[in-house]
Specification:
The complex is a heteropentamer of chains A (128), B (289), C (145), D (360) and E (661).
Chain A lengths: L4 E3 L5 H10 L3 E9 L3 E10 L4 E10 L3 E3 L9 H11 L2 E3 L24 H11 L1
Chain C lengths: L1 H9 L2 E6 L5 H8 L13 E2 L8 E5 L2 E2 L2 H11 L5 E5 L1 H5 L9 E3 L9 E3 L6 H19 L4
Parallel strand pairs in C: 1-2, 1-3, 3-5, 5-7
Antiparallel strand pairs in C: 4-6
Chain E lengths: L3 H21 L3 H25 L2 E3 L4 H25 L3 H20 L2 H6 L5 E3 L1 H32 L6 H20 L3 H19 L5 H30 L6 H7 L7 H14 L7 H5 L5 H10 L2 H15 L3 H22 L4 H22 L2 H32 L10 H4 L1 H15 L4 H12 L4 H26 L14 H19 L1 H16 L6 E4 L2 E6 L9 E6 L1 H18 L6 E2 L16 E3 L5 E3 L8 H4 L1 H30 L1
Antiparallel strand pairs in E: 1-2, 3-4, 4-5, 7-8
Helix pairs in contact in E: 1-2, 1-7, 2-6, 3-4, 3-8, 4-9, 6-7, 6-13, 6-17, 6-22, 6-23, 7-8, 8-9, 9-11, 10-14, 11-14, 11-26, 13-17, 14-16, 15-16, 15-21, 15-26, 16-17, 16-21, 17-19, 17-20, 17-22, 17-23, 19-21, 19-22
The chains are: A alpha/beta (128), B mainly alpha (289), C alpha/beta (145), D alpha+beta (360), E mainly alpha (661).
Chain lengths: 128, 289, 145, 360, 661
């Protein structure tokens, strides 16, 4: 269970993030999960100063474009680039775009964090 | 004929003295840092090892400047031991520095380029003090010839002690010691890697080491001029100054180029000018009375 | 040549390059400079610049980006040169052997003379590695260490 | 416009122990623009963690970073324990706290050494690392290894500290504290160090929050924020108050870490005194359930964030690690422009970068 | 040997004839031949002057020549008024009127024309004048030869429809005649005429390209030098009022005793300082940089500005031992320091050269102010060395400009690969400007050794000298910065470029190595013409020795300093020339430079992998410190201080008069 998790749609994202920015919250990080045909993106924020963390979550299809929050929180540039190159999340209007080669070199595997068939099968088996 | 013998002996013996001093430097530094340190002869091992490395260069022109650096440094040292004109010696030392900087400029390496620029800033800082020293020598002896310093019964330090202090400040720059190890440093943990020496490797780097040994002897020789009569006192003072520099090296962080120029110009140059003003006023009074 | 060969054994300057290691071995390489181990006793100095290096000390597994850097640095070192792979990862990839961005050990990219195992390799082992490299060099040159 | 220099700084650079590159644009000596390039330390550990069974991941996570390796291991265990959830025994909490603070002690000594070395203050670097060896010795004595301690297991810790060891540890820690205090006094009062750090790389209170900084870096900008305030493990029982400094400059960051170094030793001494007897580990039952959890632990460099998702198998569905350096790197974009080339090294080091952490 | 009046005619009138010819004949080759022939004639003629030695000359029909000079004077001034009105530049107009009205008043109101007509001799050719005419004829002529091809390329690059090369060469060649006249003139009205003629030609040459900037800068040069002209006329009025003979000889024979003379002398020195672009009047010379490079070369090396230092040197006996002398030394020394400091922040090659010229002229004027035999020797040697080196430097700058079509120092990066020959020549020129064993350094060394008379000047020298090293070495480094693969193909340049260049290089080495002969054969006599007391420099063995009186021992012939000329050249050969020939060209094993392990490719690339594996070109900018040393930052200070110094200079002259009365 993630505490104080708010599920939103990707269109609400910027408005919600703006609220955090207005309340001077700190951006903690984001994470991405491969749900098969969809990607689940979660952003974590912290009400600074203090240790009160809350989260925003949205789920998008693998081909869908997602707005970038780097216009509001520049610091999200690393995580958004990372999700873009490791998961194939289509983030548009990035403040600094590393063009898919922030972490990965030219000859690295493409979208390496997506689940392989083996992994999917193993997870299915465990679920049962 | 005598001058030839002195010159040849100097060219042969000076690097041994310089290398030996460098070895002592490393040992004392290590002890100051709570370490045991390398053998005293370590600089010589380094030197010969470098001679045996393959000859790699980043640019053909850079080699020429490093030879020039060595030759001019030896020339400056010969001016000292042959007791010639001290002002001209400072100019030749300046030429040597320019050659070193040009060596740094002559490859398209950002680090050696930045180091060379810093070397020029260092020259901007120390060159006035060296020239003021020459003017001070003239103010006291009425001559720019080093032979007159040896002939004079009054040691320079008795009336030129402010310039002596300024010289100690720039000694730190010349010996490339902290806080002024800016254009390059003896241990490559600075922001410019090895600075101006970054692109020199193998035998060419050995040439720089050799030049530095000559330079150590030269700058300590300049320090020893302050008590040239008897010379052994001057040599002791020079060695003491060397050890002092080692201590300063170990109790300070590296400063920035801008700070160095401001410091040397405000403290060093002011001391020199005050010293010369004192001579001037003194001469004026003597003229009146 | 004799004095040069002897001097080579007494003055190995090292450069450390961290491929994509976990920092464990890197810090141990640095630690070997410090008072307790004092690597400079053997004339070993950390130069940090390939142009002044005799012994390249490599830590960590080679990943797809550092492979290029490692090759470049190795090419800039003047002969004779030795390479020491410090730590399990730099020998074989270690725990990272099956990570997608890891190529494997250092010897996939540059020839390695001495392997120093350990996770992380201890400073004593690193110093020992350098000495072994020197022994190898001495053998090649046919002089006694 | 004055002519400019554009130069790489890294990946191999003597002041950077780890591979990261900064593309610097200089005007004279002044930095006018900077663009960090990362990816030299990316291995793909998050993916590897999905492929391994969950107990094995401890060893992998410990090798995310070799400096705070013990804390990575413990944080991983902590987040996996939260999936069940699984409560660990009180003594294990204290032991984890002690090892975490011991790691912090050696890490801060290491950083102080590297920082003064970047300032060209070699003799002080040697002194900090000399006393660091003493801390490494007690780490080795208690955990079995100087660097990768491997003390955590899911459910508690792997080994205990007995009374003899405890006595020795306390002795050494007191000794280290005395020496560190003396060195810190020299460091924060030294003219040259002050000249090089005061007012360099300033990050204001608001900027620090807006850029999502964390750890000593954040606290040096005056933000009182420390994960240990959450009271995880034994921190709730210990008298802990975050150390902050108002300046937001490099000097403040040095001062905060000097303070935290002593504080870490104090916390260990306090924890040794309060440590209860009892078991050191609880046994986890079965596989981590299909649940998700996030945890935040204060690492020497700042807030370490772990997110784990289980799927009922012995493999984790997803493990996400966000290390403090990952959060602190963007602040370089603010701190570096306008500084001098000479200050680049110390400003970069002032966030205490751990690239292998960042890129996993 | 030619009769003396023919020699005078060749020196002054031949350039006029040649100028008219090149103006009429519009064929490139014929015009070139005329320029070359005139150049040869002038050079030979100047050597004849040297052989002939000291003499005086008055033209046969003095009446007619006086009339011609007077008419031309007023024509020039009327032209200034025309320029002022047509450009709507009121400064030009005002300072033209301040010349023409007092001049008319002096000649016709006060009746000065009779006194001026009675001056005998009209021309005095002493050794100082011979030195000057040698410099003007040799260096100046080489620059004219260079200009033949330069202007062709210049216009080719500009895509001009109608060639204006004839007009350019007309003024350029005419300049040499005006300068020769100026240095020979003894009669003050002749001096004034040639003085104004150089100002006029300078205006025409700066404005040559007819851009807005060129015309504006030309106008500035005009009004600034008109201030000088005004001061000269006022000086003449005062002299006339005091019944001093209206000639340089008259002023000098008055001697130091008559303190009344100090004010006109100060005014004439002021005139000279404006012409020598001393602070705060440096901006006209900096503005002159917009002109085609041969103009700069001519203005900076052998003509125009040298007229200024010549006049100060010429007047040196008139102010010897006074406080005015001290002030002149300080104005010069201050200019030397400030201009050297400002040069550090300059990004354009020609502006660096301009500041360096201003600085060196300051040094020469300071030497004249120091006014000891050694200092005067230094000044005259510096005039020679500076003319050769700076002439070469500007020709190099022009050639480089035509190779890369840019004047920016940063663009000269890697020139050694593109154009090895011109780079080598430029490097020699630069080395000769500030390093031993070359003449400029010898001059600086002598200046410092003599400066102890005025300690403040010596301190300014020291600081300037340090700044000089920085800006020269910085630029030189930029030129030599190359990729490992050095271009082996030597560029082909027109003979019109290369012949003057190589001759000047030869000149640098020639006067450098043979400085002892130059001194004994030429400079020694010139010094004796200026200052008769004592001989400070002696040729001894392979070097030069400075003699003086010791404070320590009372030996009569006591050495103050020693400059081993030939040993230094041998060292230079060992250090730079021999390695350049053998080592630097010998192929070594080349490896790419250190770029933190990210260099992209082999030795022939200067790219590196940056963020996201993108290839990025390394860019290497120099240090300029425009925030600290830039014109915007320093000028308020330098202007204030230099104006204060000038005011004090006049104040001491007036006080001296007060004391005398």
């Amino acid at each position: 269970m993630i505490d104080k998790l708010k599920e939103i749609s990707k269109d609400q994202l910027l408005a919600e993030v703006k609220k955090y920015a207005d309340s001077k919250a700190k951006f903690v990080t984001g994470s991405c999960n491969d749900l098969g045909d969809k990607l689940e993106v979660t952003y974590y924020f912290n009400a600074s100063p203090g240790m009160d963390m809350s989260a925003l979550r949205f789920v998008v299809g693998k081909g869908e474009e997602v707005p970038s929050m780097t216009g509001i929180y520049l610091t999200a540039v690393l995580i958004e680039n990372e999700m873009k190159e490791l998961f194939g999340l289509k983030v548009k209007d990035l403040a600094i775009d590393f063009g898919g080669h922030m972490m990965l070199a030219q000859d690295s595997p493409v979208l390496p964090m997506l689940k392989s068939e083996d992994q999917k099968a193993a997870a299915q088996k465990g679920g049962k | 004929m005598n001058a030839w013998i002195i010159a040849i002996v100097t060219v042969i013996v000076a690097p041994f003295i310089g290398g030996f001093l460098a070895g002592i430097d490393r040992r004392i530094t290590a002890r100051l840092q709570g370490r045991f340190g390398p053998p005293i002869l370590q600089p010589f091992y380094d030197f010969f090892k470098l001679l045996g490395k393959s000859k790699i260069a980043a640019s053909r022109l850079q080699l020429m400047w490093i030879y020039a650096y060595l030759v001019l440094m030896i020339t400056a040292l010969l001016f000292l031991v042959l007791r010639l004109d001290i002002l001209l010696m400072m100019f030749i030392l300046g030429f040597a520095g320019v050659c070193f900087a040009l060596g740094g400029f002559s490859s398209r390496s950002p680090y050696s380029h930045l180091g060379a620029n810093r070397e020029l800033m260092q020259m901007l800082a120390y060159e006035p003090v060296l020239l003021f020293l020459a003017l001070g020598v003239y103010a006291q002896n009425g001559s720019f010839l080093i032979s007159q310093i040896y002939a004079s019964p009054t040691p320079l330090i008795s009336r030129l002690w402010p310039i002596f202090i300024a010289l100690l400040v720039i000694l730190t720059i010349k010996l490339r010691k902290s806080p002024f190890d800016l254009s390059t440093s003896h241990h490559a943990h600075q922001e410019l890697v090895k600075g101006i020496m970054t692109e020199y490797s193998g035998p060419y780097y050995a040439l720089i080491e050799l030049t530095e040994w000559y330079e150590i002897v030269l700058v300590l020789g300049i320090v020893s001029l302050f008590v040239a009569n008897p010379l052994w006192v001057g040599i002791i003072i020079a060695l003491a100054a060397y050890v002092l520099e080692l201590f300063v090296d170990n109790i300070t962080a590296r400063m920035t180029v801008g700070w160095m120029v401001r410091f040397v110009w405000s403290v060093g140059v002011t001391l020199c000018i005050l010293n010369l003003i004192w001579f001037w006023v003194f001469a004026a009074f003597k003229g009146v009375s | 040549m004799g004095i040069i060969a002897t001097s080579r054994l007494k003055s190995p300057w090292i450069m450390h390059f961290d491929n994509s290691s976990c920092n464990g071995c890197d810090i141990e390489v640095l630690a070997s400079l410090t008072p307790l181990y004092d690597i400079e006793r053997f004339g070993i100095v950390n130069m940090g610049n390939p142009k002044h290096t005799d012994v390249l000390v490599v830590t960590g597994p080679v990943n797809r980006r550092t492979a290029r850097v490692l090759k470049n640095l190795y090419d800039q070192i003047a002969d004779p040169k030795m390479v020491i792979a410090v730590g399990t990862c730099s020998i074989s990839g270690g725990v990272f052997h099956n990570c997608y961005n890891v190529l494997g050990g250092v010897d996939k990219v540059v020839p390695v003379d001495v392997y120093v195992p350990g996770c992380a390799a201890r400073p004593e082992a690193i110093i020992d590695g350098v000495v072994m490299a020197l022994q190898k060099l001495a053998k090649l040159q046919g002089v006694a260490l | 416009m004055a002519p400019r220099t554009i130069t790489p700084f890294g990946p191999q650079h003597p002041v950077l122990p780890e591979p990261i590159q900064l593309k610097l644009t200089l005007e004279d000596e002044k930095v006018v623009d900077v663009l960090p390039a990362i990816g030299y330390g990316h291995r793909g550990i998050e993916k590897a963690c999905e492929l391994n069974e969950y107990p094995k991941n401890i060893y992998l996570c410990e090798r995310i970073c070799g400096i705070c390796s013990a804390i990575h291991g413990m944080t991983y265990c902590d987040v996996v324990e939260k999936l069940w959830p699984l409560e660990i025994p009180p003594r294990a909490k204290y032991l984890r706290t002690i090892w975490a603070e011991m790691s912090r002690t050696h890490s801060h000594l290491l950083w102080l050494g590297l920082a003064v070395d970047a300032l060209g203050f070699e003799s002080m670097f040697m002194q900090y690392w000399r006393i660091r060896e003493k801390v490494l010795d007690i780490l080795e004595m208690t955990a079995g290894h100087r660097v990768t301690q491997s003390v955590a297991v899911v459910g508690g810790v792997r080994r205990d500290i007995d009374d003899d060891q405890k006595k020795h540890c306390i002795e050494v820690l007191k000794d280290v504290r005395k020496e560190a205090e003396a060195l810190n006094n020299v460091l924060v009062n030294d003219y040259t160090v002050k000249a090089r750090t005061v007012g360099k790389g300033v990050l204001s209170y608001d900027q620090a929050i807006a850029l999502g900084c964390c750890g000593p870096h954040l606290r040096a900008s005056g933000v009182k924020e420390d994960c240990r305030q959450l009271g995880y493990w034994a921190y709730g029982d210990l008298s802990f108050e975050p150390i902050t400094a108002p300046g937001g400059d490099t000097y403040s960051r040095v001062a905060v870490r000097c303070g935290e170094l002593l504080q870490a030793i104090d916390l260990q001494l306090e924890a040794f005194a309060k440590m209860p007897e009892g078991d050191i580990a609880a046994k986890p039952k079965g596989s981590p359930p299909a649940n998700e959890a996030a945890t935040r632990i204060e690492q020497p460099r700042g807030e370490l964030f772990y997110y784990a998702k289980g799927n009922g198998t012995r493999n984790l569905e997803r493990l996400r690690v966000r290390t403090p350096t990952y959060a602190n790197i963007p602040s370089l974009l603010v701190m570096l422009p306008g500084c001098e080339m000479a200050d680049v090294a110390i400003i970069v080091l002032s966030i205490d970068p751990c690239i292998s952490c960042t890129e996993r | 040997m030619l009769p003396y009046n023919w020699m005078m005619a060749v020196a002054i009138l031949l350039p006029v004839v040649a100028a008219v010819l090149v103006y009429i004949i519009r064929q490139y080759h014929v015009r070139g031949v005329i320029v070359i022939l005139a150049a040869i004639a002038l050079i030979v003629n100047s050597i004849l002057f040297l052989l002939h030695g000291k003499d005086t000359f008055s033209p046969a029909n003095a009446q007619m020549w006086n009339m011609v000079v007077t008419v031309l004077d007023y024509l020039i001034l009327l032209f200034y008024i025309y320029v002022g009105i047509s450009l709507k530049n009121w400064l030009v107009l005002i300072f033209a009127l301040t010349q023409i009205i007092p001049l008319a008043w002096l000649e016709f109101g006060m009746g000065g024309s009779a006194a001026l007509a009675n001056v005998n001799p009209t021309f005095v050719v002493d050794h100082l004048a011979i030195v000057m005419t040698l410099v003007i004829s040799i260096v100046g002529s080489l620059i004219c030869v260079f200009a033949i091809r330069y202007m062709y390329d210049h216009e080719h690059h500009q895509h001009l429809e109608k060639s204006r090369q004839s007009r350019f060469l007309f003024w350029l060649v005419l300049f040499l005649g005006a300068m020769n006249g100026l240095v020979f003139a003894n009669n003050l009205i002749y001096l004034y005429f040639f003085w104004e003629l150089t100002t006029l030609i300078c205006f025409q040459l700066i404005a040559h390209d007819l851009t807005k900037e060129a015309i504006g800068n030309a106008a500035r040069a005009l009004w600034m030098n008109s201030i000088g002209g005004t001061a000269l006329i006022i000086a003449m009025i005062i002299l006339f009022a005091k019944d001093v003979p209206m000639s340089l000889n008259g002023i000098l024979s008055g001697g130091v005793a008559s303190a009344v003379l100090l004010l006109p002398v100060a005014l004439m020195c002021f005139t000279a300082m404006i012409k020598a672009a001393q602070l705060p009047f440096q901006s006209w010379l900096l503005g002159a940089m917009v002109a085609p490079t041969p103009v700069s070369a001519l203005l900076h090396s052998s003509t125009m500005v040298k007229a200024g230092v010549y006049l100060v040197l010429r007047l040196a006996p008139a102010f010897a031992g006074t406080r005015l002398s001290v002030m002149i030394a300080l104005v010069g020394a201050f200019t030397f320091m400030a201009a050297s400091g400002l040069a550090i922040s300059q990004t354009t090659g020609k502006r660096v050269l301009a500041y360096s010229t201003i600085a060196n002229l300051g040094l020469i004027i300071a030497c004249a102010g120091i006014n000891t035999p050694l200092a005067i020797t230094a000044a005259i040697l510096l005039i020679i060395f500076h003319a050769v080196s700076k002439g070469l430097m500007f020709l190099c700058a022009g050639t480089i400009e035509h190779v890369i079509w840019s004047r920016e120092i940063e663009d000269m990066e890697g020139l050694a690969a593109k154009a090895p020959m011109i780079t080598t020549i430029t490097a020699i020129g630069m080395l000769s400007m500030f390093l031993p064993p070359f003449g400029m350094l010898l001059g600086k060394w002598m200046a410092l050794e003599s400066a102890s008379v005025i300690p403040l000047a010596a301190w300014l020298f020291v600081i300037a000298s340090a700044a000089g090293i920085v800006f020269w070495a910085k630029w030189l480094g930029r030129l030599l910065q190359v990729l490992p693969k050095l271009g082996s193909k030597i560029e082909s340049l027109s003979l019109s470029y290369t012949v003057p260049l190589w001759l000047l290089v030869l000149g640098i080495f020639g006067v450098g190595i043979g400085v002892a002969s130059v001194y004994t054969g030429l400079v020694q006599n010139a010094v004796a013409d200026v200052i008769s007391s004592g001989q400070a420099l002696a040729v001894q063995g392979w070097g030069l020795t400075v003699n003086g009186v010791s404070a320590v021992s009372s030996t009569a012939n006591f050495a103050v300093g020693n400059y081993p000329v030939w040993p230094l050249f041998i060292v230079f050969a060992i250090a730079v020339l021999i390695p350049f020939i053998f080592v630097a060209i010998k192929p070594g094993e080349l490896r790419p430079v250190y770029m933190c392990g990210e260099q992209a490719g082999g030795t022939d690339t200067d790219e590196w992998y940056s963020t996201a594996d993108v290839k990025t070109k390394v860019q290497l900018g120099g240090y300029y410190f425009q925030g600290v040393l830039g014109e915007a930052a320093l000028n308020p200070w330098t202007y204030t201080l230099s104006i204060v110094l000038m005011v004090i200079m006049f104040a001491v002259a007036l006080l001296a008069i007060g004391g005398a009365l």
